[in-house]
Amino acid sequence: MKTLRGKTARVTGSTSGIGRALARALAGEGASLMLHGLGDHAAIEELRAGLARVHGVEVRGHAADLGDPASAARLVADTETAFGAVDILVNNAGVQFVSAIEDFPPERWSALQDLMVNASFQAIRAALPGMKRRAWGRIINLASVHGLVASPFKSAYVAAKHAQVGLTKAVALEVAELGITCNAICPGYVRTPLVEAQIDAQARVHGLSRETVIRDVLLAAQPTKRFIEVEEVAALAVYLCGDQARSITGAALAIDGGWSAR
Ligand code: NAD
């Protein structure tokens, strides 16, 4: 039985990596979908059409640049206009930037906060009235293990992810009695284009092989010593959307191979 038939999901950053796996898993459970993200238009259209065909659900595409956080609210409004509702709101789009804090470009700092914190706030603010009317909603903020612990040289990312976890808790408390849950998923390293770029950058900066970077830098803090698969994160998100998870709210759920247990 498809558990999410009749629901509409809007997943930001679902043209790549974790978001794409989430979109696929939600569509697989029967949810209609607003696919969103930047990238090659033809490839995104192929993804959209493929999801609709394989899963027999309605899928539309949106390419709002969330560098302008107000566009996150417009994306919610456009989804409501197209589908009549946003039942499942996933704030997933994100980027990384690595730099010592004294060299950190202030505009980069602001860009990371806009994309991951301010756009999440704007989207939640826009989606809540409809969720309240329908007395049902699932909000998932794709934070990170870096929403729970820090690493050096990732100050903007760590600050943004901690803010997403804080936002998650505050929203959860505000709507706890209304049939709406709000949770943060906090993955360790998942092998996606975002992480591939970090492997390349670290290999270049330190003059190391990619294999050495993976073993001695990235997975050094991840006790399982393997990357998390995007499907593992997607399965957790699907679980959070189900009725069995209606009492899980305000949680920051680590899926980090034991990283945050240290
Ligand atoms: P990814 O690079 O594969 O995908 C990022 C997505 O965000 C893409 O669809 C891209 O188009 C979209 N995006 C980026 N900038 C945007 C902008 N300005 N406007 C609109 N869309 C934009 O990344 P990923 O690894 O799948 O990461 C997804 C989320 O998971 C991010 O929030 C990331 O911080 C988080 N996360 C990733 C990992 C990991 O190891 N990959 C670990 C923990 C948390």
Query: What is the CA-CA span between the terminal residues?
Result: 39 Å
Helix content: 40-55%
Give me the CATH architecture of the largest domain, please. 3-Layer(aba) Sandwich
Each distinct ligand: nicotinamide-adenine-dinucleotide
Secondary-structure-based class equals: alpha/beta
Average pLDDT over all residues: 97
What name does the CATH topology of the largest domain carry? Rossmann fold
Number of helix segments? 8
Question: What would CATH call the class of the largest domain?
Answer: Alpha Beta
Low-confidence stretches: none
Q: Superfamily at the CATH H level of the largest domain?
A: NAD(P)-binding Rossmann-like Domain
Order of helices and strands: EHEHEHEHEHEHHHE
Rg is: 18 Å
How many domains is the backbone divided into? 2
Number of strands: 7
Notes on the protein architecture:
It is a single chain. 48% of the residues lie in helices and 13% in strands. The chain has 262 residues and is of the alpha/beta class. The protein folds into 2 domains: 8-189 and 229-254, 3-Layer(aba) Sandwich (Rossmann fold), CATH 3.40.50.720; 191-226, no CATH class. The protein has a 7-stranded parallel beta sheet with strand order 3-2-1-4-5-6-7, sandwiched between helices. The radius of gyration is 18 Å and the shape is globular. Bound molecules: nicotinamide-adenine-dinucleotide. The site of nicotinamide-adenine-dinucleotide has 26 residues, from helix 1 and helix 6.
